[in-house]
From TrEMBL:
GO terms for molecular function: DNA binding. Belongs to the 'phage' integrase family. Keywords: DNA integration, DNA recombination, DNA-binding. Pfam families: Phage_int_SAM_1, Phage_integrase. This is Tyrosine recombinase XerC.
Amino acid sequence: MSAQDSPSEIRKKVGEFLEYMEVERGSSPLTIRNYNHYLIRFVDWMKKSDIRRNLVDINQEVIRRYRVYLSRLPVGKDATMARKTQGYHAIAIRSFLKWLIKNDYKVMAPDKIDLPKNAERQVKFLNGEQVDRLLNAPSITKITGKRDKAILEVLFSTGLRVSELAKLDRDKVDLERREFGIVGKGGKARVVFLSRRAAEWIDKYLKARDDHFKPLFVRHKGKVEPTTPDESMRLTPRSIQRLVKKYSHKMKLPVEVTPHVIRHSFATDLLMAGADLRSVQEMLGHKNVSTTQVYTHVTDRQLREMHERFHGKSGGG
């Protein structure tokens, strides 16, 4: 085995690939952590299986054996790894191989690794009446209620990811033009537009604040000193998820509402109103339109129900 193909060198290549994801692709720390987990598991399995660990030894038979191993891997009492999680492992290996080829290593073609077919993704979303109930759930007599009302309005107005919402700073949001720029998942920049109502509630919330903190949405509990750093005041994605869940339960909605369900509701609402898929893709910050197409299954189903309810009822020829 050459020095280039030693086990430690393969791990080194994984490390370089993860650095590429961080620096050039702008992947999130969570994505990088997951890819590291998937790829090191594969390298460790090769070692335990007495497979030579040259890069060229990653072939279809090795991948087949590894996927059988993953499909039988216990992850709990009487449970094995979900097909979706197995798919994430395959995606990580394919991405790693693509990067190796890009850097002139002679390795197996990534497209020889098939991805497992998952059951059709179920998109949960709220209808118009349920959205209205959720948006009106906060009591606006206190500043926390004004903040929560603004958060819910912004989520439905923009379809932002919860991580994107949490990162917003007050000086970056133009309430007059009702827009702001954001760098989302994968380093993809986009312009986000606010509804008039969302802009009005942000304005009401900010006017109720008497602090100098930079984040748009901050906590209003706990001790605050003049020297308290901005970032310690910023509302976290987890806190935003908790408050959305609280109002969902308060209004007894039939769907377990999360910020992502509100994002789904935003996209579905646009498509049902006649927006084209490419525009919705841009507004959601999706890299590929195929990601956005999951919503067409929802709207197609709604249109089918509409067709069955109203078509041919007049009795005309």
